[in-house]
Design a protein that fits this description.
2 domains; Rossmann fold; two-stranded parallel sheet; seven-stranded parallel sheet; alpha/beta
Length: 357
């Protein structure tokens, strides 16, 4: 049956990947929600709307109240990324944004909600069970996930739509201005190091370990869940399928950029990298990059990089999750993380965010 899919947070890492996947389906109408206009060519209908305001959401979505599917990847973050995760105002704002969106869409058959491994307390700096599983006891810490999930379950029961909840781990994709995208930080760090004649090195703990989720794989999982019997009203962890030691990605990244590799060394990305904003603008003007303002392209991702790469817990006891439930439900897809990172860096080149040479 024809679908009309509204993607909230359509310019974020996951939202943009979903838009890209859906554009290949001629039978699907795609509507992207974002306060910013897209900086890339797309056949999706974009609506500029501030989901924090109920009236703005209703007005902006009035023409799309007949949407059959909602992919909710919108996210409100505070300027101080890590501290914002514990802020009651951030929790309430994210709950209200989802409520305003659901109020405006009255014909839904399916809703996808994005969470993450903060559901297991991965951001608290304390060890979590390895591997973390979807049936683990939770709600032992304040988190907007719980407010949104309670709201979603109540609305689904009242209105009769199905839903799926996904918990990806370290999402990587092609996007501009994201709060949490390692691909942007990989790319910008490498380009700036190369421009200064310096080697690329891993700026965190040499043995820090994690899992990643390619945004394209997450998008495929979202679409799979629309019709999969085993996905109805279920929650799933999502990862690429392998385990990653951050420092061991850097030889391939250095080779991708044609530069030497240095030894891992600590570096506070948030403090050091904004010092090179003027150099980035020079590179951007010379290479005709799509986004000449480094802060606008990186968003809050320097802060996120510090949280990932300089977190002692990630070295001593990494936050790893099980994807067995997703596989048993019938989603078989996977991708090698090193391959994923290189493909996404090439995607940033193709999109004009990184120099082509």
């Amino acid at each position: 049956m024809p679908k009309k899919v509204v993607v909230a947070g359509a310019l974020g890492v996951v939202g943009r990947a979903v838009i890209d996947q859906l554009e290949a389906d001629d039978g699907t109408t795609v509507v992207g929600l974002s306060r910013r206009s897209p900086d890339f060519e797309t056949s999706a209908r974009f609506v500029s709307v501030d989901l924090r305001e109920a009236e703005a959401a209703r007005a902006g979505l009035a023409a799309h109240a007949d949407a059959t599917h909602l992919v909710y990847a919108a996210l409100h973050e505070k300027p101080e990324l890590f501290r914002g995760w514990f802020d009651p105002d951030q929790i309430e704002t994210n709950r209200r944004m989802l409520a305003n969106t659901l109020d405006a869409l009255t014909n839904l058959e399916h809703v996808t909600l994005l969470q993450g491994t903060k559901a297991y307390g991965a951001h608290l700096g304390i060890p979590i069970r390895i591997p973390a599983k979807e049936n683990a006891p939770h709600r032992d810490h304040d988190n907007f996930y719980w407010e949104q999930e309670d709201l979603l379950r109540a609305r689904a029961e009242a209105q009769g739509f199905r839903f799926s909840i996904f918990r990806p781990q370290i999402v990587c994709g092609v996007a501009s201005g994201s709060a949490m995208n390692p691909i942007a930080t990989f790319g910008a760090f490498a380009v700036l190091q190369r421009e200064r004649g310096l080697p690329l090195f891993h700026p965190g703990h040499p043995h820090a370990m994690t899992e990643c989720t390619d945004a394209r794989l997450q998008a495929r999982a979202i679409m799979w869940a629309w019709d999969a019997p085993g996905a109805v009203n279920e929650t799933f962890n999502v990862t690429n399928g392998d385990i990653t030691v951050w420092s061991e990605l850097f030889p391939a990244i250095a080779d991708f950029f044609g530069m030497p590799l240095g030894e891992p060394a600590p570096l506070r990305m948030r403090e050091e990298m904004p010092k090179h904003n003027a150099l980035w603008r020079t590179i951007s003007e010379r290479e005709r990059l799509r986004e000449p303002d480094l802060d606008r392209w990186i968003g809050l991702s320097w802060q996120y990089a510090d949280a990932l790469w300089s977190n002692p817990t990630a070295q001593e006891r990494p936050a790893l999750v099980s994807t067995i439930k997703l596989r048993q439900a019938g989603f078989p897809d996977c991708i090698d993380t090193e391959q994923s990172v290189l493909e996404l860096l090439q995607g940033c080149r193709d999109a004009g965010y990184l120099p082509k040479r």
